[in-house]
Amino acid sequence: MNAGSVGEPRHGRPNATYVIYDNDTDQLTLREVEYDYQKTCAAIIEKGLPPVFAWRLSKGLEYAERADDPTHVCER
What we know:
Elements: E1 16-22, E2 27-33, H1 37-46, H2 51-59
Helix pairs in contact: 1-2
């Protein structure tokens, strides 16, 4: 079971996701948690990493159609 991740979301939101598995009932519960993704985006840019990483995080998407346009980075 892959529930997603904190830094590479693919569900259209920057939230972290995780799963809780209950052994007794064989039930999976998907959880989503908001966090200060803008702070993380700013740190990505500050460290000199490609701006597309911050774009993907802020949009919760895999592909960055506007990755070369830095004006949208860290905006939702």
